[in-house]
Amino acid sequence: MPSGTETSRPPVSTKRDELLYRLRQQSLLGEFGRSALQTRDMRQIVQRATELCAQGLEAPFAKVLEYIPDEKRLLIRAGVGWPAGTIDQSLSGLMWNRPLVMRFTPGR
Fold first, then answer.
1. Is 78 exposed, middle or buried (0-12, 13-18, 19+ CB in 10 A)?
2. Rounded distance between C-alpha atoms, residue 108 and residue 81, angstroms
3. Report field, pTM of the whole predicted structure over 0.70
4. Which of 6, 8, 45, 86 has a C-alpha 20 to 30 A away from that of 33?
5. CA triplet 45, 48, 64: central angle to 5 degrees?
């Protein structure tokens, strides 16, 4: 019986788990391919790719950023889990001499 002071262990990966994981990846990739063949609208294609990536990673948030070199800024082109109006917003004022780090904050 657990005492409540034990730390939880990460799940042990089995060959069956790995197979299921790979099959899910292939399924999501196939779904993306089918949806990409149904439209020529790049905005829809990138948005669907973002949705499927978030689903595959089991991530509540995901976004695609486009670098606009003339303006030295990033533009949010697609997203999942972000507030309404986030897409097409600009991230500017970045310090380009340092790596861009985006932090995940639980609950936000």
1. buried
2. 10
3. no
4. 86
5. 85
